[in-house]
């Protein structure tokens, strides 16, 4: 059984104050008690006892019984108190979630306005984006949506997240855009098999890339390490920087809007592309 001090600390984490916790534990003994008796046993001063008992009565934690001489108090069934607290917590939680959604719905309109024209500001040549993966992927998808003719990418497959990305890429190809991608021939990703996540095999890699290829993406595989870099229309370069030694929220990406630099990176892409293997050629080596 927990000691009194431990029970008090648990009650405090549930929202009870120190004196309220002491009074509550005394009342839990189930006796019919006067304010004086409760004060003496809980070691809570009389001035505070009356306010606490009044609050407990209003909240439905205990009954106030009037006798010929004094008021006395008795706690109700703790199960009933638990049910009441649980209802209160859920109601309070739902209220906060509703407020949270309403507030961020309004805030998002401000964010969207700022976000819609930030790609058109020529004075911003280099951007460093820090934060969780989802935030950085969102920025990457924005760049993809704004691409007009060609996207050249070098990827490590584990970095791809992408039902939404697949849709954006498919739409880009339908509009006549060209996507050429070099994937590092690595099995450092997981696949879902029979409802369980497990390590990928060479067959899984070929299957995934064949699916990309059927959608219109041109693909090569590299057996040497390649950087995570995407070049949009030979004007914008997106560099994904990751480091297993630091927390995810401190990872960063760099966006460089400079045609000359983009052209140099396109030359690097061509170097790896020419040395890469097609999906069929890679399959024969497995």
The first-to-last residue Cα distance is: 62 Å
Number of domains: 2
In CATH, the homologous superfamily of the largest domain goes by the name: Endonuclease Chain A
Main β-sheet, spatial strand arrangement: 4-12-11-10-5-6-9
Please give the number of β-strands. Answer: 12
Shape: elongated
Q: Do you know the CATH architecture of the largest domain?
A: 2-Layer Sandwich
State the helicity in percent bands. Answer: 40-55%
Radius of gyration: 32 Å
What pattern of helices and strands is seen along the backbone?
HHEHHEEHEHEHEEEHEEEEHH
The assigned structural class equals alpha+beta
CATH class of the largest domain: Alpha Beta
The whole-number mean of residue pLDDT values reads 84
Proportion of strand residues: 15-25%
Count of alpha/pi helices: 10
CATH topology of the largest domain: Endonuclease, Chain A
Please summarize the sheet with the most strands.
7 strands, mixed
As residue ranges, the low-confidence spans are none
């Amino acid at each position: 059984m927990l000691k009194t001090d431990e029970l008090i600390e648990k009650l405090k984490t549930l929202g009870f104050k120190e004196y309220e916790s002491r009074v509550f534990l005394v009342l839990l003994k189930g006796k019919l008690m006067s304010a004086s008796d409760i004060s003496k046993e809980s070691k809570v001063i009389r001035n505070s006892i009356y306010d606490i008992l009044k609050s407990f009565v209003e909240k439905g934690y205990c009954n106030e019984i009037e006798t010929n001489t004094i008021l006395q108090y008795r706690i109700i069934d703790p199960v009933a108190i638990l049910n009441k607290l649980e209802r209160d917590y859920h109601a309070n939680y739902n209220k906060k979630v509703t407020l949270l959604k309403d507030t961020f719905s309004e805030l998002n309109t401000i964010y969207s306005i700022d976000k819609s024209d930030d790609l058109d500001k020529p004075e911003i040549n280099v951007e460093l984006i820090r934060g969780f993966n989802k935030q950085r992927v969102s920025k990457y998808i924005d760049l993809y949506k704004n691409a007009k003719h060609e996207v050249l990418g070098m990827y490590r497959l584990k970095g791809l997240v992408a039902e939404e990305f697949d849709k954006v890429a498919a739409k880009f190809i339908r509009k006549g855009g060209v996507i050429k991608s070099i994937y590092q021939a690595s099995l450092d990703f997981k696949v879902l098999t029979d409802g369980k996540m497990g390590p990928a095999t060479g067959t899984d890699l070929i299957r995934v890339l064949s699916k990309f290829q059927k959608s219109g993406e041109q693909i090569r595989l590299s057996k040497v390490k390649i950087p995570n870099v995407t070049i949009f229309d030979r004007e914008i370069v997106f560099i994904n920087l990751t480091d297993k030694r630091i927390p995810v929220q401190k990872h960063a990406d760099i966006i460089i809007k400079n045609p000359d630099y983009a052209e140099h990176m396109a030359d690097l892409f061509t170097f790896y592309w020419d040395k890469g293997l097609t999906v069929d050629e890679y399959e024969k080596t497995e």
